[in-house]
Amino acid sequence: MTETYFELTEQPILTESVIEKVKRREAGAITTFIGTVREFTNEKRTLKLEYQAYVSMAEKKLSDIGDEVQEKWPDAIIAITHRIGTLHISDAAVVIAVSSPHRKTAYEANEYIIHRIKEVVPIWKKEFWEDGTSWVGDQLETTPYPEGAPWKGDSHD
Amino acid sequence: MIKVLFFARLQEEFGKESVEIDKSGWTVEALKDWLEKEYHLTGVTQTMTAVNEEFTDDHYILAEGDTIALIPPVSGG
To answer: Other CB atoms closer than 10 Å to residue A22's CB: what's the count?
Structure first.
């Protein structure tokens, strides 16, 4: 297999190429999720974002999410591409494509994937606001992980 | 030696991406306490930890050659 189903890139993501990876004759549905850069969060205006990643581990974790999906929805095929580096308003930060014989699986698996990305994949977002910068998910402001490790997955709705 | 990797806010606080230290045999918990004091970092004890690219807990005992990454709450997607 020459294609990479789980990757990080510094280039703009080509949505169609992520979809192409999961296309197949058995599929009756393909869902695509595109996470984009939002300009306003509440009243605050974002000028740009910077994504940083622990690249080797992040790609491994994306692939682990693929294994989780395989277990929960054996007939789903998935591909995930996450962009890193500097992104501007409306740029795609992540594209997730899922194909399955029937649509329910494609929808459910796709939502599960973005949920897990936000929990266990070592990628960080720095917001550049009009009046300063901040790392999103800063542990000083959000839930700490007292045991030092995140929740292991599965058994999740 | 143990290689410690810093990301996001911790990387900015530390000023570098990584450091090599001689702390094999220590627990992750002890190392985090030490890093916080030694380098005046904040919130280290509340970060997740990965050793050799797998999440681990604070009781893990570091072995020679391990790469430990301090993982602040992630915000991808």
So the answer is: 21
CATH number assigned to the domain comprising residue A44: 3.90.1170.40
Using a CB-CB distance cutoff of 8 angstroms, which residues of chain A are in contact with residue B76? 51, 53, 58, 82, 93-94, 117-118, 121-125
Which tokens go with A57?
A: 């581990």
State how far the Cα of A74 lies from the Cα of A98, in Å rounded to an integer: 12
Query: How many domains, in total, are found in chain B?
Result: 1
- Cα–Cα distances (Å) from A52 to A111, A125, A135, A147, in that order, read 23, 7, 10, 24
Which ipTM did the prediction report?
A: 0.95
- Return the residue of A nearest to B51 by Cα: A57
pTM as predicted? 0.90
Residue B41 is part of which domain span?
Answer: 2-71
Q: Do B8 and A118 touch (CB under 8 A)?
A: no
